[in-house]
Amino acid sequence: MKYSSIVGAARVGLGLLCTIALAAPAVAYESVLYEKTSAYSTVVVTDEGGGLRALRFGRDGVRQSLVKRGDPEYLGLPYARTVMTGLALCDEPRRILVVGLGGGTLPAFLRKRYPEAAIDAVEIDPEVVFVAKQYLGFREDARMRAHVADGRKFIEDVARPYDVIFLDAFGSDAVPPHLTTREFLAAVRRAVAPGGVVIGNIWARESNRLYDSMVRTYREVFDELFVVRASGSGNRILIALPRQQQISREEIVQRARSVSESRGFKFDLGSLFEEGYTPADGDGSGGRVLLDADLARERAQ
User: Residues 271-289: pLDDT tens digits?
Assistant: First the structure.
């Protein structure tokens, strides 16, 4: 997932990336269980102690995923709980797509709490899929599959829409640029059902110079957009709808709380949305619409 293009604008110093992480700050760990350099990154699995294991990109990389083996309901990273707030805006999802497998925490949690749903997880790096299965407890079954593919190509080829699409693909330091453009998000909109929801995970403005441009691009493509801060992390969750739906913050909180209760979540989605809703951050007026043409020009330089 390394591209020269506009990643340069999105990157920040390594020191900052180690303190404001996609998932959590890099911390001391007990041991390295697995390490291998793939075509996309150096994939590392660490023993975090207390029955926890983490997926990192590089030994000093932040925790991309944190799992407790044998407990698919464990969502140890703040963003992983906050992304679930988007479920409040979709009635009983039957088809779910997760772009970016990581350690498999999101699809495993969804499989546990939505056992009737079909779940597809897409990951470009086969090494990540390997460690998710061999070291992090991810298991495929008849209703949950992992696909080794570029998330964009997979979405562009979708024939049957999904009710929920999670966009959670990260390289070691940024969302891959080709997964940020208007053309990509237009394909995502085509791949989601009219009554469905798209849930994106991006870095906050403090560590992402393209933050406002990413938000503006979402607003360009989708009819409604809500921005939720993941408490205790540097993540912002973008909840996008392919329809106009006038709904108050209070109503979303109530719906989110209802989802938590009906599905037996161990945390309250209503509180997460209520505490994290950040309308000012969702403006995006200081950014520009990101285009495939920008990437082509950057690559040509």
Answer: 999 999 998 887 888 899 9
